[in-house]
Amino acid sequence: MIYKEIVDVFNDCQIILFLRKVSKITFFNGTDCVFIIQKIIKDNTVQLFNDRTLESEWILKEMTIGIDDNLSKKLATLSDTECPQKLKETKHTKLTFAARVQNDKLLAVPRSVIYSYLPTKSQKGFSFLINGDFLTNAERTELMQNIWNEFLFKEIAVKQLEWFTELQNTMFKYDVLKLLKGKYPSYSSSVIELGFNDSLDIAAKTISFLPVEQTEDLTTIVNSIRDTYNLSKCFNSSTILDYLNLPSTMSIIDLQMNDQSVLSELGSKDLTFLEVIFMVNSDKANNINSAIRFMVFFYNNTIKNNNPDWLPNLKTVSFIMDQHNIYKSPQEVFYPIAQYSDSLSFSQLSYIHPQILLHFKTAELHYKQWLSNLGVKEPDNVEVFRKAIVPLINQNKIDKNNILEITDFVFTTHKSKNFSEHDYENLRKLPVLTNNGLYKSSQTYFSDDYNPDKKLSKILVNANFLATDYVKSEDDKGEWKVFFKRIGVRDNISIDIIEEKIERVFFESQNEEAKSYFTWLESKEEYPGLYHSYRYSGQHHISHFTKIEFRSHLADLDFSKFFWSSMLDSWDTLKNKCSNTKYFYRGGSSPVSSFLNYYIVSFPSVPATDGICYRSVELFSPNFKAIVGDSFPVVDFPVATTKEQIDFFGFKTYLSVSECLAILDNLAAKSISGDTTKQIFAVYNYVIGHGITDKNAVLEWRKNAKVLAINNTIQPVEKLYITNINSDVTPVNSDRFLKLPLGRISDEIVALSEFLMIPLISESMLEFVSHGESEDQALKAAIESKLTYLAIIHSHNTSDEFVKVVERLRQILNAKNFFRADKLRLVYSNEEKEMIIDINIDVWNTRSKQFYYTGDWKKPVTLYSLSSGLCEMLELKNMEREFELIFQLDDQDILDWLVKNKFNTEQIEELGLFVDIHHDITEEGSIDENDIAEKFSEFSIDFVAQLQVEEIAHSISSPVVKELVDFSAINVRQYTQVENDQTRIEIGRWAEEYANKYFKENSEIFTSVKWMNENEESFLPYDFEITELGIEKLIEVKGTPSNDNLPVLLSQEEWKVLFATGKDYSIFRVLGAGTENHRMERTDDLKTIISEGRLIDFPIKLYLE
């Protein structure tokens, strides 16, 4: 093993390269000579032999380096392990460089190691060998990271360039860059490597070792120019520097210098393709000699597949001099032929300068093919278009003087069918003559003379319509229409989509408002903010851009209405066009809002009810028309809008407090009418429904505000009151009370009072005053005689237990004393003792034991007034009509009516109440048969439509809100369902018509009503889509001819919608459908109520599979 290791080490002849006193080593195995390694100095080179065979040849450079006192002091602080004593005391050290030579050329040494007289295992990336007093670890695998080795590496950085300077006087002058060690990576953590970098930066600025082209001079790295493309073969160096306006201190490196690419990272300048183009465009190159040299340069550098990336750029660069000594691009210049003559007044054609053609005479075929590849063609109509007309289009040089001649020439070429699709793309930028002057084809419509698919001249009065000046013959009119349609003239209104992916900077240069659109996207963070700073780095692109050529017309009211009507008619198409815009950046891509979305929120483009176009975000949604009126602009679309469309436009769907108050001020200044009253109520309902508040704004408003009083006059708001007592209490002709919308419950009225800061008069604040009262036992006895009948009806309606109802009614009745009075009043005075309310009433049920009334209770008129108060006292809800009926019939008639309508009269007999059902009634308290009013219509639980909805003359009362059911009080009994399908349909239809009538009568609350089954059965799990106080809701209507609170059956689909919609799903129950005794109840937010365990009778059944 030891033998093999020794042989492996000494077989490398380089081991003796830096041993000063050793020139030959012979290795014996016993007496046998195994091998001999030897170095011989010859002609300034060192030759290494192995067994007399030449292994390698080297040039060496030894340099002595002084040690200053500062470094010695630093070394003295190191331990002897880190730095031997002799180095601490020495005043100089040596470095030796060795470069390998082969065939009179320098040869880079791969994977060279550092020598400390003998080789170490440390590789530092040099292409030559270095020997010095390096400090290594014990294994000689790594250099120690200390100030001594750092010092040596700083010296190496400088000394290598000094050595290269010396080599400029040798045959190796053009090879030295093979040896140059560039910089270590900037992220290196090695102090010796970072020190080397710093020293090399200094040396690159100060040491001249690079040979200069066409001189004997040397230059530094930072003052050097790399002529990669050999431009200096066409121009002398001083001319190049002059053309590029470079300082005279800079020099072009000799073209013979090898491996120049290593200089780039050290500060050397590269002569680029773009700088050559800059030279062409400089005034100093404006002569035929320079033009020929540039042509030779570009030709030589692009033939035989050299620099293939140049060719696309050269096609658009002006580097070919024409006959007028003007540089033209290949797109603008022709290869001359004798047969073609130019007779176009609008353009002077350009041809390649004859001296250039003469220079390339010997290579004419190759040169002509090269020019053809760049786009230089012999002239014909198509090429004239491309090189003479397209530049005029791009430079906006087409005007009224040349438009007809140019377009006629183009039209003739079009008819020959030689244009490519790219040519037509250029023609889409050709302006066209219109009734309003010259405009882009995409901004122009066919006039009626061209027989377009849609004649728009009467619709778009101010739009641009194509002139007929082009057409010289009726026979050509059809082909002219084909041509103009091909280049973008419109025969209808649409939005164009640019689908291709386009770089942002270029896109901004080609499209107005693109920059502001992108800025808008960034303000909304529609793509990650991390990438915003790179937006002009060439990494960002846009695709599927919505292009609106006619956008300037959108501020015109008629055009805007027509356009949006067309777009909303094809809503899915518009939505699809606007949903595919994508923004690309280096980290990926993001879907973003379309340009149309940006435009409508940024520029006036949407019609409003006041006849002006606004930004969409300045307009209220159409649903707010009934509330806003003409106080604020509301979008004015000719068709209904959906929630999705409202969200798309960003219309306002919320009224602020200040806006509500402004609407009230506006209405107060108008004449009072039914419409203004409805609008005022709509504002109140909105305030109630949304719970908005701003006390400071209301306080300021109240100083001068006026609102509608109950007597339909406009009064100062500070003068008014609000009451949540029933409307009978409020004086109808008073100018002291705010006029309120119908159907508002007490809590809602309180909320409005708090919002407007108008004092509220509640029932508890009223003072009851009676005149001439006397106790009346007869009425009490009469009520007691009818209690059992009333109890039967009530227990039937509520499923309460009959006996308990009777007992409860008697307890209530026994606790009350009845008084008949000559006059009853309710009064209220304010703090200033001003009488605000003083009104006569017919009935008053005190909170204690007294019940007061006026009149003769035996008379129908008085009974009509009494029934409501007495039912309220007895807690007989919704039984006023039955109460009146019972009081006006004798016992037998009552029993007959109860039996006929299937009430359970057996309960009376079972409890033995028939025998003692009457109390004695005094003569003066008896009911005369003549006093009995006409009997009410008989009740029936079968569905027989006694009247149609349209026959209901009065307004339908607001439905009672139902939220809770006491299941413990419900008797379990079977309800017979309607078996006949047609009967069920008729009941449901009647109930929906009833609900629809209610919605229509209260349009200030229900601003939008869509009856899903109005024309035909929709089979949807709901019957109405409504907007109530600005909130969109789904309504399911359930109808029954019964007045019982029967259970409601829900289908599976209705159940799903109920839970999916949540608080915006309500059930309206129409009871007494088809009868005179009709009424309606509603239950809202069913999802919450059900989830809280209300409306469900537990335990419930679950079927688990």
Q: Shape, please?
A: elongated
Helix/strand-derived category reads alpha+beta
Number of domains: 6
Query: How much helix, percentage-wise, in residues?
Result: 25-40%
The amount of beta strand, in percent, is 15-25%
Mean pLDDT over all positions? 87
- Residue windows where pLDDT falls under 50 for at least 5 positions: 912-942, 967-976
* Number of extended strands: 47
N-to-C CA distance: 80 Å
Helices, by number, come to 36
**Spatial extent as radius of gyration:** 52 Å
Give the SSE layout.
Layout (H helix, E strand, L loop, with lengths): L1 H9 L13 E6 L2 E11 L2 E6 L2 E14 L2 H8 L8 H5 L2 E11 L2 E3 L6 E3 L1 E2 L9 E4 L14 H21 L23 H16 L3 E2 L6 E2 L4 E3 L10 H7 L7 E2 L16 E2 L2 H9 L6 H15 L7 H5 L5 E2 L5 E2 L4 E2 L15 E2 L2 H6 L4 H11 L6 H14 L8 H13 L5 H7 L4 E3 L2 E3 L4 E2 L18 E2 L11 H10 L9 E3 L3 E2 H7 L3 H10 L17 E3 L1 E3 L9 H13 L1 H8 L3 E4 L2 E4 L3 H8 L3 E2 L5 E2 L10 H4 L14 H7 L7 H12 L5 H17 L4 H8 L3 E3 L5 E3 L5 E2 L22 H11 L3 E2 L5 E5 L2 E2 L1 H9 L1 H12 L3 H13 L2 E5 L1 E7 L5 E7 L1 E3 L4 E5 L5 H15 L5 H8 L3 H10 L5 H5 L49 E2 L19 H21 L4 E6 L12 E5 L2 E10 L11 H10 ...
Parallel strand pairs: 7-9, 12-13, 12-14, 17-18, 21-22, 33-34, 37-41, 42-47, 45-46
Antiparallel strand pairs: 1-2, 2-3, 3-4, 4-5, 5-6, 5-9, 7-8, 10-11, 15-16, 19-20, 23-26, 24-25, 25-27, 27-28, 29-30, 31-32, 35-38, 36-37, 38-39, 40-41, 43-44, 44-45, 46-47
Protein name: Protein NO VEIN C-terminal domain-containing protein
Organism: Chryseobacterium jejuense
